[in-house]
């Protein structure tokens, strides 16, 4: 059971990182990104490319970051000509197009069969030690990202992002450059998601196009919405809560002696139904964003 | 020699010790019960359940009823890993069966093998499954086996210019790649190789693209609904004047109108042997319909084989199971899908297929 808890905690912290990255775009800067999973995929494929070229973890992180920055810049460039909702649809289209490219990429990307055999982050000691060390890295990274997002949000810079979100024209009149702000936020959150992708790729030892389907983006969206759009702590809570619920549905099945096909239905009901309940009755999520918190507060 | 004796003594002692404790065999399975591969996953569940029910009705394994724990992967790698980790670390199963898509089978199998448990692959035919590790076995012939068979068959029938169409996923890419290699190796030519996107309403463009290369036969392997579309449009375009060859005949033709597939030839899994026929009858009786996919048979065989291995080893310990599986697979296990023989990397090396032809809308042996 302990090993299982370590595993679920690793997954939860990686999803929390992805949710924080999305929250920075969606919750703070008001960027409706439906292509979030591609940023994660950039990191994962970066690690995989480095691996298939016999390069180590550092090169993987470098490649992942480089790919993610390219995607972030592309998203930002699209944002110049498109209004908010249209931009969201464009990001979805780009993410799907990239997934198809990776799927038909031949030997370079491994095609639909992906790239397998990536080494784990830590190989020394027992498997449990290695898992604990991986968890340590994930938690440390999550804490760093949380701190970064928080300090960013509470700085003057964060305020300018919120103005961009609420009143883009006011932001312009105050002398802010919306394109520059948008680009900076996208590049930063891309890099955060990409590092998450690199860790994930090494943790599960496999990278393939099925990992970056659009449904995964909406799972991250669900975590952000349940946790509370705009509140970094809430978003982490949402990710952890959903990941643990997901992982423990099978235990409920065992306890209640239900047939295994119910689990599938229950998972779907949890995401779909849970999301609907929150949107209808608690649109602010578990933890509400603090408005006017200025330089302090959650 | 001395070391060998010592080893043998230790192994048999260990086997005796665990036989004395006679724990019930627990079989874990991770299947796509929801998500894009749910049809195949559900069918795999049927196969495993039938096998376990049969054995339990006959007194179980090691005089204990077998416990079956099935988990859903949702067709996602993270959920499949959650499920496999639950099976290994909480339920403490010695063996995990699954999955269907090779993108999930490979990471899941890798994890199971790392934990020193047995992994049985019964649905992924990607060649990369071979590299999962020491404790991983395949009861399904990998792409090289099935596509090599089709290539040889087509070549023997005198066809030299083939157009290939398969789905753009791990299965389809693997089939096409291995077929192209095998057919080229025989001296034939693959004039076009098309990967189609699943779920489209029309494949006319793909078919016309293939038509322009003037093949003397088409080789295709496609899922029921999409195969139906391909067959209908090939008929409408007059492409059925050229010979069509189906990889996994029942999968390719189950949803198609009889007039569109008349005269097609191909191969399918062989359910003709005694075990196969008994299984087919049991499946029909239990679920009230013919096979939905070809994959339930492999799942049935995987479950049967691991239960036989446990009985053979007199133990449910993964190490003993591995030795037993290697032995049983080395001499040949008579399954519903024919004789299962493992090669040196624990993959099914040969698979008897059935050559078929569609006559009056029905598949017949040719």
Short description:
The complex is a heterodimer of chains A (298) and B (366). Chain A has 298 residues and is mainly α.
What gross morphology of chain B would you assign?
elongated
What order do the strands of the largest sheet of chain B run in, or round the barrel if closed?
7-6-8-9-10-13-14
Q: How many domains in all of chain A?
A: 1
Gyration radius of chain B, rounded? 21 Å
Biggest protein-protein contact in the assembly: A-B, 37 and 46 residues
Structural class of chain A: mainly alpha
Q: What is the makeup of the main sheet of chain B?
A: 7 strands, mixed
Q: Give the oligomer, counting copies of the same chain as homo and different chains as hetero.
A: heterodimer
How do the helices and strands follow one another from N- to C-terminus of chain A?
Answer: HHHHEHHHHEHHH
Shape of chain A: globular
Structural class of chain B: alpha/beta
Average of the residue pLDDT scores of chain B: 88
Succession of helices and strands of chain B: HEHEHEHEEHEHEHEHEHHEHHHEEEE
Side-by-side strand order of the widest sheet of chain A:
1-2
- The share of residues in helices of chain B is 40-55%
Number of strands of chain A: 2
> What is the beta-strand fraction of chain A?
under 5%
End-to-end Cα distance of chain B: 53 Å
Q: How far apart lie the N and C ends of chain A?
A: 33 Å
| Share of β-strand residues of chain B | 15-25%
Provide the low-confidence segments of chain B as ranges. 13-20
Structure description:
The complex is a heterodimer of chains A (298) and B (366). Mean pLDDT of chain A is 89; it is low at 294-298. With 298 residues, chain A is mainly α. In chain A, helix 1 packs antiparallel against helix 8, helix 1 (2-28) runs antiparallel to helix 10 (232-256) and helix 2 crosses helix 8. Chain A starts with a helix and ends in a 17-residue tail after the last helix. Chain A has one domain (2-212). In chain A, 74% of the residues lie in helices and 1% in strands. Chain A has eleven helices and two strands, in the order ααααβααααβααα. Chain A has a two-stranded antiparallel sheet. The radius of gyration of chain A is 19 Å and the shape is globular. Chain B is of the alpha/beta class. Chain B is built from 13 helices and 14 strands. Chain B has a seven-stranded mixed beta sheet, sandwiched between helices. A five-stranded parallel beta sheet of chain B has the order 2-1-3-4-5, sandwiched between helices. Chain B has a two-stranded antiparallel sheet with strand order 11-12. In chain B, helix 2 (38-57) packs parallel to helix 12. The longest helix of chain B is centred in the N-terminal third of the chain and has 20 residues, at 2-21. The radius of gyration of chain B is 21 Å and the shape is elongated. Residues 13-20 of chain B have low confidence and may be disordered. The chains are: A mainly alpha (298), B alpha/beta (366). The interface between A and B is large, with 37 and 46 residues.
């Amino acid at each position: 059971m302990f090993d299982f808890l370590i595993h679920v905690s690793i997954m939860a912290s990686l999803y929390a990182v992805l949710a924080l990255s999305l929250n920075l775009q969606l919750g703070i800067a008001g960027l409706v990104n439906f292509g979030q999973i591609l940023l994660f995929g950039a990191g994962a494929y970066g690690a995989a490319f480095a691996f298939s070229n016999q390069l180590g973890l550092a090169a993987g992180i470098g490649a992942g970051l480089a790919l993610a920055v390219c995607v972030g810049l592309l998203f930002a460039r699209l944002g110049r000509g498109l209004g908010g909702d249209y931009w969201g649809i464009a990001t979805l289209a780009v993410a799907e197009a990239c997934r198809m490219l990776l799927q038909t990429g031949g030997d370079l990307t491994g095609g639909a069969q992906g790239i397998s055999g990536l080494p784990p982050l830590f190989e020394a000691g027992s498997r449990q030690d290695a898992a604990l060390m991986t968890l340590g890295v994930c938690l440390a990274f999550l804490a760093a990202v949380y701190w970064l997002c928080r300090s960013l949000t509470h700085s003057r810079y964060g305020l300018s992002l919120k103005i961009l979100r609420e009143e883009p024209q006011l932001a312009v009149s105050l002398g802010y450059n919306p394109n520059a702000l948008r680009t900076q936020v996208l590049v930063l959150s891309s890099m955060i998601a990409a590092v998450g992708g690199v860790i994930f790729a090494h943790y599960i030892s496999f990278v393939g196009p099925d990992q970056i389907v659009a449904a995964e983006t909406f799972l991250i969206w669900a975590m952000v919405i349940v946790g509370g759009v705009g509140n970094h702590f809430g978003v982490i809570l949402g990710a952890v809560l959903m990941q643990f619920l997901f992982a423990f549905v099978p235990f409920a099945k065992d306890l209640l002696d239900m047939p295994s096909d119910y689990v599938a239905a229950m998972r779907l009901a949890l995401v779909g139904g849970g999301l609907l309940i929150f949107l209808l009755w608690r649109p602010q999520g578990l933890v509400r964003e603090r408005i006017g918190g200025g330089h302090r507060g959650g | 020699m001395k070391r060998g004796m010592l080893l043998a003594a230790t192994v048999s002692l260990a086997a005796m010790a665990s036989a004395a404790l006679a724990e019930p065999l627990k079989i874990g399975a991770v299947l796509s019960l929801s998500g894009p591969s749910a049809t195949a996953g559900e069918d795999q569940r049927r196969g495993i359940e039938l096998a376990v029910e049969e054995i339990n009705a006959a007194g179980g394994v090691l005089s204990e009823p077998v416990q079956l724990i099935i988990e859903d992967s949702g067709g996602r790698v993270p959920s499949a890993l959650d499920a496999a980790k639950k099976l290994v670390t909480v339920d403490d199963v010695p063996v995990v069966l699954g999955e269907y898509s090779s993108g999930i089978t490979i990471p899941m199998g890798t994890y199971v093998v790392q934990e020193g448990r047995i992994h049985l692959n019964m649905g992924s035919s990607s060649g990369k499954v071979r590299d999962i590790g020491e404790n991983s076995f395949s009861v399904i012939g990998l792409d090289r086996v099935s596509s090599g068979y089709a290539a040889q068959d087509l070549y023997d029938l005198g066809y030299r210019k083939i157009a290939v169409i398969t789905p753009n996923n791990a299965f389809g890419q693997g089939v096409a790649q291995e077929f192209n290699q095998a057919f080229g190796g025989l001296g034939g030519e693959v004039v076009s190789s098309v990967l189609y996107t699943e779920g489209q309403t029309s494949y006319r463009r793909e078919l016309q693209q293939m038509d322009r290369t003037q093949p003397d036969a088409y080789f295709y392997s496609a899922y029921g609904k999409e195969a139906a579309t391909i067959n209908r449009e090939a008929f409408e375009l007059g492409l059925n004047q050229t010979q069509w060859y189906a990889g996994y005949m029942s999968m390719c033709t189950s949803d198609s109108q009889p007039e569109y597939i008349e005269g097609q030839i191909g191969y399918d899994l062989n359910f003709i042997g005694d075990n196969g026929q008994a299984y087919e009858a049991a499946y029909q009786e239990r679920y009230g319909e013919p096979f939905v996919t070809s994959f339930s048979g492999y799942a049935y065989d995987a479950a049967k084989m691991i239960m036989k291995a446990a009985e053979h080893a007199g133990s449910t310990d993964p190490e003993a199971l591995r030795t037993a599986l290697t032995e049983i697979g080395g001499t040949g296990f008579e399954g519903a899908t024919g004789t299962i023989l493992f090669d040196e990397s624990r993959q099914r090396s040969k698979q008897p297929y059935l050559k078929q032809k569609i006559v009056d809308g029905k598949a017949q042996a040719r």
